[in-house]
Amino acid sequence: YFQYLEQRRSVKNEKLDNKNKDDGLRLSEIFSFTDSYGEKKSVNVDQEALYMIDVDMVKLLPQAFQDLQQNFKLPGILPGGSHCMMNAVNANGRPFMGPNLYITPPSSFTHFHQDGHGTVDSGHLCLSGFNEVVMLRRLTERHKCHALQLLTGTSDSYGALYGLPHRDGLKTQLGWPSKESIRQCEDMGYYPSVFILKAGQVVHINKGRLHAFRKL
């Protein structure tokens, strides 16, 4: 994955350097790899963003998780912390609640979703770069479906509410919401919050609040 990131960075830097020149691109834009199913795949690093999602820090990055526990300024909100409703349950007895790590170059985004099918709060810490957030207030099921139609232009609201927002093979390719769709949500009283997280900033999202992220 980091080889992909480095190749993407090199290709984009070369394009910037040659912007006012007639030189052709010397670096390859195609990155080939073998996925977790053993299938060989290729992507154009200049046009496609690979998003590493849901990396279990507890199992896969124990040292990074330990560092987070020791240095995070709000340790009580971590799974099992003093503000967690399952802090009296041992780690093996409660469902997995993270923390997870997400890494991606700019331009990728998640689809609108509600964490835990609308049953859990979540916290999001930006480690580097910028993370644009669109978040609605808590709504009834009917208004959630209507808000999704405004924001995405699709009637497949059930998939957004109860599917996995990062899954491969989504049947409907949804774009990022426009300013007009945000205005329509404001007119409906859905109170959309649009803001950007910088490195070191955290946002807390109450359960049942539809939200989406875009990496800048």
Explain what you see:
- The chain is α+β, with helices and mostly antiparallel strands.
- The chain is 26% helix and 20% strand.
- The chain has six helices and nine strands.
- The strands form four sheets. Strands 7-6-9 form a three-stranded antiparallel beta sheet, with no helix packed on it.
- Strand 1 and strand 2 form a beta hairpin.
- The longest helix has 16 residues.
- It is globular, with a radius of gyration of 20 Å.
How would you briefly describe this protein structure?
The chain is of the alpha+beta class and 216 residues long. The chain is 26% helix and 20% strand. It has six helices and nine strands; from the N terminus they run H-E-E-E-H-H-E-E-E-H-H-H-E-E-E.
Total beta-strand segments: 9
Biggest beta-sheet profile:
3 strands, antiparallel
* Widest sheet, order of strands: 7-6-9
Name the poorly predicted regions: none
> How much of the sequence is in beta strands?
15-25%
Gap from first CA to last CA: 19 Å
Oligomer: single chain
